[in-house]
Amino acid sequence: MSKILTFGEVIMRLSPPGNKTMKQSHEMEFFFGGTELNVASSLATMGCNVTHISNVSDDFVGESALSFIKSFGINTAFINKNEHPLGLYFLEVGSSVRASRIAYNRLNGSFANIKPEQIDWKKALEGCEYFHWTGISPGISEGAYETLKEGLLTAREMGIEVTTDPAYRSNLWKYGKNGNEVLKELVSYSTIFIGGVNEINEILGTQFSSDQQGFMEACEELKKQCPSIHKIFDKIRIGVTASSQQTQGRALVNGNYFETVFLEVDNVVDRIGTGDAFAAGLIYGLLNFDDEKALNFANAACAIKHTILGDINYCSAEDILEVMAGNSGGRIKR
Amino acid sequence: MSKILTFGEVIMRLSPPGNKTMKQSHEMEFFFGGTELNVASSLATMGCNVTHISNVSDDFVGESALSFIKSFGINTAFINKNEHPLGLYFLEVGSSVRASRIAYNRLNGSFANIKPEQIDWKKALEGCEYFHWTGISPGISEGAYETLKEGLLTAREMGIEVTTDPAYRSNLWKYGKNGNEVLKELVSYSTIFIGGVNEINEILGTQFSSDQQGFMEACEELKKQCPSIHKIFDKIRIGVTASSQQTQGRALVNGNYFETVFLEVDNVVDRIGTGDAFAAGLIYGLLNFDDEKALNFANAACAIKHTILGDINYCSAEDILEVMAGNSGGRIKR
Amino acid sequence: MSKILTFGEVIMRLSPPGNKTMKQSHEMEFFFGGTELNVASSLATMGCNVTHISNVSDDFVGESALSFIKSFGINTAFINKNEHPLGLYFLEVGSSVRASRIAYNRLNGSFANIKPEQIDWKKALEGCEYFHWTGISPGISEGAYETLKEGLLTAREMGIEVTTDPAYRSNLWKYGKNGNEVLKELVSYSTIFIGGVNEINEILGTQFSSDQQGFMEACEELKKQCPSIHKIFDKIRIGVTASSQQTQGRALVNGNYFETVFLEVDNVVDRIGTGDAFAAGLIYGLLNFDDEKALNFANAACAIKHTILGDINYCSAEDILEVMAGNSGGRIKR
Amino acid sequence: MSKILTFGEVIMRLSPPGNKTMKQSHEMEFFFGGTELNVASSLATMGCNVTHISNVSDDFVGESALSFIKSFGINTAFINKNEHPLGLYFLEVGSSVRASRIAYNRLNGSFANIKPEQIDWKKALEGCEYFHWTGISPGISEGAYETLKEGLLTAREMGIEVTTDPAYRSNLWKYGKNGNEVLKELVSYSTIFIGGVNEINEILGTQFSSDQQGFMEACEELKKQCPSIHKIFDKIRIGVTASSQQTQGRALVNGNYFETVFLEVDNVVDRIGTGDAFAAGLIYGLLNFDDEKALNFANAACAIKHTILGDINYCSAEDILEVMAGNSGGRIKR
Amino acid sequence: MSKILTFGEVIMRLSPPGNKTMKQSHEMEFFFGGTELNVASSLATMGCNVTHISNVSDDFVGESALSFIKSFGINTAFINKNEHPLGLYFLEVGSSVRASRIAYNRLNGSFANIKPEQIDWKKALEGCEYFHWTGISPGISEGAYETLKEGLLTAREMGIEVTTDPAYRSNLWKYGKNGNEVLKELVSYSTIFIGGVNEINEILGTQFSSDQQGFMEACEELKKQCPSIHKIFDKIRIGVTASSQQTQGRALVNGNYFETVFLEVDNVVDRIGTGDAFAAGLIYGLLNFDDEKALNFANAACAIKHTILGDINYCSAEDILEVMAGNSGGRIKR
Amino acid sequence: MSKILTFGEVIMRLSPPGNKTMKQSHEMEFFFGGTELNVASSLATMGCNVTHISNVSDDFVGESALSFIKSFGINTAFINKNEHPLGLYFLEVGSSVRASRIAYNRLNGSFANIKPEQIDWKKALEGCEYFHWTGISPGISEGAYETLKEGLLTAREMGIEVTTDPAYRSNLWKYGKNGNEVLKELVSYSTIFIGGVNEINEILGTQFSSDQQGFMEACEELKKQCPSIHKIFDKIRIGVTASSQQTQGRALVNGNYFETVFLEVDNVVDRIGTGDAFAAGLIYGLLNFDDEKALNFANAACAIKHTILGDINYCSAEDILEVMAGNSGGRIKR
Question: Which residues of C touch F90 (CB under 8 A)?
Fold first, then answer.
């Protein structure tokens, strides 16, 4: 059983049921998630041995989050509790021409107050094949940045593959550091880049175009500036409306470009966590298949996640392989 | 802040959750609305100063309706209570090839028992720029007709713009008056007509065709017979299925014809109140933009309302402008 | 009022709300149904006089099932209670590219323990014009097979039309009999076959192709081997995705082939029971229309059932005729 | 199987879930009921053959009500549909020191528009042993009064026992008749009076005291003025708080006074329909037991109804006998 | 109509439905409240003209809070929006021997970031008869303390009555000030003290006993140290279990001691906000009745609030007067 | 961290929400539990290291059960999947004088099909201090009996304490063995008996009285016939009504009798699993306290479980210690 470590915030999502607005509601559904925990949960659901590192609040909210994480069989031994509240966000789910809206409450939460000294990275990473991080974590607080950096350096020393989805989010990075500079630094400690032209342009300050040619040039430039990166996989999600989406993957590995077919998803249930489903699918794919099949698996994982409510992809590898094989959902499995 | 007055029934909608039928349900969601209150609420949400005139029941149902209306910041000082029950309707929401169904209980309700003497129209209309009414109100009872007529005459005296959506509904008009005659009379006290060939044919007894030529001829005939009308705006909603709709607006102003693009809405959440969203969008547009932009804004308001549960368009002007700008909902606003 | 008898399991469906998975839920919606009861309920809703024969558990679950059946006005006088639990199944409803999943708990239930001696078939069938059965029942237990067989033989003696939807389900037939042999035997006691190339190939062990030519040949072969069959009606459901489906009917009657148009259903609410809606529509159609109109009615019934939650088609004949007339659901019936 | 006829409004109850107020809710649970239908449903649940006579609305609300009534196996052949809406009421459920509140919408509904000519009383009453009515029906409309009167006269001619719960409600009787006079007239067509000092004082204009002596004197006076009355049974419900109640029954039959013990109910779930549960329990008791046991059974039925949500007593005779035997609910029936 | 100003945090409550724990839930009910807003809402429900001063978040959560506040007709003109998230807390509701549990997330929220310069106190207080504050606000942040202090000084200058419920909460006061010192200072700017021996002992550092004698001595000491205080009203809530409570009020005014009876509440629905209901009842009482009746009214308001879900007392003055008159809730108001 | 092993069925509970009956519901809440899993979950919640041995169904229902069990951090490595459905039961929750009702569906489920050869008891019991079993398991099937017996013999060999709650249930034992004989055999492999006079009388066929004297004599007789038993602890639950209960514990250890106070629980939320809470509390107590304190802790655990919905006691040891200390729940923990 492959062992994987993920690091990042455990965040609670609160959302009025269905497509309601908050003004129309007296109740909200809640889910736990967080971009890296979403990756962890999906990998655990597919049978991997996963350790997630984070902080939760030392109250019944944090206890509930821990129960949730344990329910996937994820190792929680490296999750600490502190006196700060668990980070959370509110989501109004859009439909068709109406976009979804998010309001965050995370910048002073339990994860934002993480400190490097609370984690024994050597011990946590022992036996791991993959360490996954995203650009959200270092944007939350200096402590999260420092802690992550220490983990990355340890992982590199130990020769562990480091995957990164270095999403830059303009609503983070309030603590004084320059997001793009930090991301470039941390990417340079990583080995597999999950992102495309937008992400590269943001990190490097370049202006590559988003067509295939631009993608390939951007990848080369990234590899030049961050030489530890040896594989680049990109997910493309085209939102026709809030209820109809298309997904595609493309990659540059060893100078070879390849891409997947477009998968179409009508009747979208949830867009949150589709990128994380891609990342989890990719890691699972790299552990079990060749690079091209891994990309196709990742894209199918991304597509099927659009049909699952909440942050997390509850689908098994078998479910994903069916989508990858082109089987539409128009049947009933008895 | 523009001041607008609306007049009409406050009605409660009761609907089984989702697409369930009543036989399948033990609970119903409820919403307050009413065609003119829907216009009022949308205008208030967009920042206008709105007064709504109506009756509610003198019980906890009426109290709840008042709280709801106040939550938009709408002025309720001219709403009276009486001993009759609040009007209501039941809705079974259709899907795809199955149409929605409505059953009314309104003809002996608190609004049906409204009387002209209970309203000081001069005082209520003071400072207003617009007075909006629809063809529903005079169809409910003689008292509603008399009260509305007095309001319209007062508004015309005071030089206030009067907008009308003169929908003829065959399931009303049970109290003895001829609906089309009454509507023609009341339209002749109005200045902006929100309707098209169907409405004009019904009111005037004409038979214009529904193409552009027919629309323009119908408008000219209407202006001839009701000379106070100086602008005509029409909304076109094409229901592909109960779950897929198209909307378009067209207008004749000062002899100039113009029309909007078609907007497509998949995954329709609610069709009720989409015409009211158009009317509110139009009034807001006329107060803030030129006539053509107003029409486009109205059409976008109509489109986005299809994604909101209940009678009322909870969207802000910014949300509507995004749809008008052609931004699909396939993104998440963080 | 036409009198019809149906025989089969009363089964409870348990399903997380919406598109949730069980892991995401703490509650489930429940519905009663069962393929033959679905036919019975739809026919009763359309005004037929229906008797359903089955067993239920002798506890409050069985009592609830009986109340449910009575609510349609179905005659329950021939339903017995026994000490075994009511059969049930769990359903996770898919969406788009994600298929639905079912887990059964029925093989030791109250219906599985049915015995021929508990039913007075002569009395039950008195005055009936139609007797409907499906291939599910004889697959559940030997007792169900024996009981059904006795009923069929009695019906044939009494000259009653026997309709069958002989679906072969590989997850049944655990009690030792060969499913295809049994089905062939029971079909040979029937008069109207509701099924197509797949069903015929399974029962006869043939390999006809699924095009029109193959369909016609398969029908001829079936009629040769089971000469009591005089009409064959087939339903075709094409699942584009779990949320988008197409339905069509075709038939061979007296050597004449005819087929319906394709009906498209977007925003599918529920796929369970769509075949049963077809069967009920067909029986109603045969009782009220000519064969070709009956097929069109059945196809429209099948289409509209996709918009109804649960196993049962709650639509009236008028609702179905509207779909058959090509009226989409994009309107509101006030 | 004893045959019983009941006559009265089918009314829908709409109530926010739990103890919420309407202002706090966006949804309401709904139930069908009505004082006489509650008696009918309870009797049918206990195995009696019951016919209920009423009107329902000719829309999907009325259809749902019919399904509900049929689910008890009640004969609905004498229920008509008309174009008026189904009567309904809103209920805010109190708790402890907070009282429950009701708002009605029934005076122009489908039952209020009932007419004597729509019912063939001879046919409906054929074979009946009991006819049950209450004082609610004649208070709703002149038509309801006239229809009921015709039924009572027919029942008396046919020698059927007529039970009455002649509750006078001051919020009815809006159509011009004097409630107490009408009730006295109708009681004089009845044979078993279910009521006590309050009811007698209201009907006769007397001022008997509520102690045992006053009760006995009041009964004698009632029998003097309405000589067809031969048995009088009274229910006493003492509301300690909205959550804690006591019930007792007393009776005067053939000059003999007897009374039951007090039954205490903590954690009251619903107070509506407890009097109807008493009436149903009494009729069942009179059909199956002696007068004193009947009174005890009625009192136990009244007590257990306090634990059931909605208007209707879903308990079996066995459940009621257990309460009557003094078994508290502090056990689990496996 | 009496005009009252309140100042304090608008906080969102999130709670699993019923008595569930978070681990057992996937959804939470939400309510807006906050100790001073609870007072404001109750006063507005009873017909007072209320202005509430606070901050909300500049997102859809803050917008929802504003709608909620407006629904009571409360003036929101002095509420600002800022970029910090709305404060919130999670509540697990206990039952019987299990206590309720709360987890807060408020210390970096929109109200905690309030600043004195954002409020024009002179304008806000114009025409007010009462200004109400509690000890929660100054415990949240230095800004809240400074802002409140400025308001109090202005109110005193303008001769407005200042009521205070100076609750000391040990889980606040994280920003560096000594809670008891600050409270003593702010109480010395107030005129009516709502609290008893515990509160006085905390603020003054004294050790009076909680019997009547101790209460009277504590009051005298408080008046000596804070001479602007001229009336002292205390609420006593005895929690028998989480489901059963008793309330009593006592007071010292002009040297006269008086107290109310004990009111018992079984089947407690919600304990939150019962003290605020007392405060609102007291202010309403002081405006409308004499001091002793005001205390009794306050105590009845406190009792009835235990039966209402959420933070806010939705009861009218009439409802409260009934409880005060000793009418239990064991009846139904039709 | 103490290590404990439990063995028994994982069963799903399905229950209409609140106090509704199934006939009134369209949805049910579901919970996983089972008498021994309840003990396991409570011990894990209190921080113990617990392994549970069972079977679950090899479908998404079984997967959900596994997730649930893992969420407590319970070791599931010894749980197998098979093709039989997960056992389940339906529960209608009573109130006050109405008893709760249960209908089971478990006798052919995944646990009933357990086989001795599937478990490596030596490995599973390694390091365990306690092995807990109940009388439910051997009553389900011969396989369950054989498997349990093997486990008990292994545990005794390894010198592990064996606790048993030997509840005899008459609705089990359908597979041919005599329940009392089997229970006596299995108790004779155990060391700590959790039960009282009723259980001893059933197992030994004796007729001891239920007073203290009878209890002591029964204990002595049990120890004589089953000499491995060295401690006996009894729980007494007195159900005043379904909503009001009392609990007490008593014990005989080394010839010493001791008992706890009575704890009263009003407003009972759930009675299921209260005995299991006692057992878990007792084991936790024996591991951490002396025998008498252990009994008091067990009794408090039993009491507080009455306030938790579902089968499982979610309370921490701290929560239980508070109840044990006599702190009522009438307070809020902030």
Answer: 59-61
**H helix intervals, F117-173:** 121-125, 137-140, 142-157
CB contact (8 A) between residue A68 and residue F71: yes
F213-225 burial, b at 16+ Cβ within 10 Å, e below that, comes to: ebbbbbbeebbee
- What's the gap in Å between the CA of F1 and the closest CA on chain A? 14
pLDDT digits (tens, 9 = 90+) for F240-289: 888 889 999 999 999 999 999 999 999 899 999 999 999 999 999 999 99
Local structure of E222: helix, strand or coil? helix
Across B125-143, average pLDDT: 97
Q: In which band, very low, low, confident or very high, does the pLDDT at C239 lie, cut at 50, 70 and 90?
A: confident
> What pLDDT, on a 0 to 100 scale, did the predictor assign at position B72?
98
Chains C & D: contacts with CB separation below 8 Å: 14
Give the length of chain A.
Answer: 334
Interface test with B, best of D15, D22, D140, D175 (most B CBs within 10 A): D22
Q: Is C290 helix (H, G, I), strand (E, B) or coil?
A: coil
Alpha carbon B251 to chain centroid distance? 17
Name the helix (H) or strand (E) containing E88: strand E88-92
- N-term to C-term CA, chain D: 29
Those residues whose C-beta lies under 8 Å from the C-beta of residue E51, and which sit 6 or more positions away, are E3, E4, E5, E6, E74, E75, E77, E78, E124, E128
Q: Closest approach of chain C CAs to the CA of B90, in angstroms?
A: 10
Sequence-ordered strand ranges (E) for F135-226: 161-165, 192-194
Instruction: Give chain D's count of helices (H) and strands (E).
Output: 11, 16
Which pLDDT does position D171 carry in this prediction? Answer: 87
CB B110 within 8 A of CB B57: yes
Look-up of token digits 């120890």: F223
A202-222 burial string, b = 16+ CB within 10 Å, else e? bbbeeebeeeeebbbbbbeeb
Residues of chain F neighbouring E238 (CB-CB closer than 8 A) = 330
pLDDT band at F113; cut points 50, 70, 90:
very high
Within its chain, how far is the Cα of A144 from the centroid? 16
Q: What is the rounded CA–CA span in Å between residue B134 and residue E304?
A: 44
ipTM of the prediction: 0.94
Q: What are the chain C neighbours of F59 within 8 Å (beta carbons)?
A: 90, 103
Strand residues in B210-299 grouped as ranges (E) = 231-241, 244-253, 256-259, 263-265
User: What per-residue confidence (pLDDT) applies to D127?
Assistant: 96
Q: Which chains touch A (3 or more CB pairs under 8 A)?
A: B, C, D, E, F
Which domains, and CATH codes, for chain F? Answer: 3-234 (3.40.1190.20), 235-334 (no CATH)
Instruction: Tell me whether residues D334 and F171 touch, CB distance under 8 A.
Output: yes
Mean pLDDT across D176-197: 96
Cβ neighbours of C94 in A, within 8 Å: 307, 329, 332
Kind and range of the H or E run holding F232: strand F231-241
pLDDT at F315 over 90: yes
- Identify the closest residue of chain A to C169 by CA–CA distance: A334
The DSSP symbol for F308 reads S
The two three-digit tokens of residue B52, written as one number:
């709504």
Confidence category of residue F79, pLDDT binned at 50, 70, 90: very high
Question: What is the H or E stretch that residue C151 is in?
Answer: helix C142-157
Q: Which residues contact D102 (CB under 8 A, 6 or more apart)?
A: D89, D90, D91, D92, E332, E333, E334
- Chains that contact F by 3+ CB pairs under 8 Å? A, B, C, D, E
Q: Tell me what the mean pLDDT of segment A216-225 comes to.
A: 97
Closest CA to A304 of E157, C21, B317, D155: C21
Give the separation between CA A284 and CA A293, rounded to whole angstroms.
Answer: 11
